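Objective 1b. Sequence-to-structure analysis of Protein O-mannose kinase.
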Amino acid sequence: MGRHSSSFNSFVFPVVMGCLAALMLSSALIYLYLEGVYQSDEKLVSTHAGCLSQHFKLPSMENCSKWLQCSQIKSEVHKVKLIGQGAVKKVYLADWKGHKVALSELASLEYREDFLHGLSMLQALQDSLVVQLVGFCLENNSIITQHHPHGSLLNLENVLAQPKYQHLNTWHIRLRLATDYVSILHYLHNSPAGRRVMCDSNSLEKTLSQFLLTNDFHVVINDLDALPEVNPSGGMLVKCGSRELTGHFVAPEQLWPFIDDEQPFSDDLMPPYDEKTDIWKIPDVTQFIMGRTPGGDLVHFHLFQIHKECKNVLPRLRPSAFDVLKTYKSVYGAVVRENRDML
């Protein structure tokens, strides 16, 4: 009996230790993989393909090329189909020398000022966080940009539901997308063209439609038609349009302050505001991006405090986009470590 017990123990012990070692090794490999994913993501934040100013390089191109001018756009760019339409512009999938591009055309002369503002912002803000400008022509009011087949962030759930992308439906990919979104806000609030506010963001759906999902699952801002400049210290504030805004998505300071007095809305009496309206909306956008993926609850737990601060009714007490960005990156590392410890 004793000999059998001894031999059994001598057999089981190495097996158990081997299993534990394998588990620890796999945990370490997963941790290193996740860390590598996040670090490599950070390295992707650079200028478009290393091209010079006023140049572009599509993924299917070997070399950079100068922005397309009117003559090239008129003769070389051919519409394929309509893929989007708003008040300001119509957007077509188009072909340029075998490369798929997005062709935006002014939808109504009434909105030409907004159209030109969007073009000026595209020119001034070219960065890896902004859709790549390919060319433009003022003669026929057209803008060419890089085409992203996944479309806007509104399509996120449908894209991740596709069998070939289901392996990317993870908390760390979704948090990466949310981090991209906050990075874009930080860039806009500290841009080469001054401190810019996203005014085309009066609902969750409208806000999500301003951003595109790239093929490598990052986020770029696409619609720059309504980006007024603010400078609070210099007394330069904004109002997003001349109509009354309603609902829970917009920041409190964007709501008509005299509604309890039953006073009719007046744009002249409506107080202006600054970029902290963008901060108020971060928790709602991130909630959508995170979805219901496993591990998301732990992410929301870690983000609770910063999101609470984003929802402060006093704009001056809300964090900056940079503060939120730092927290998001910190939370990513914390959740990776906690997942590693649980394995």
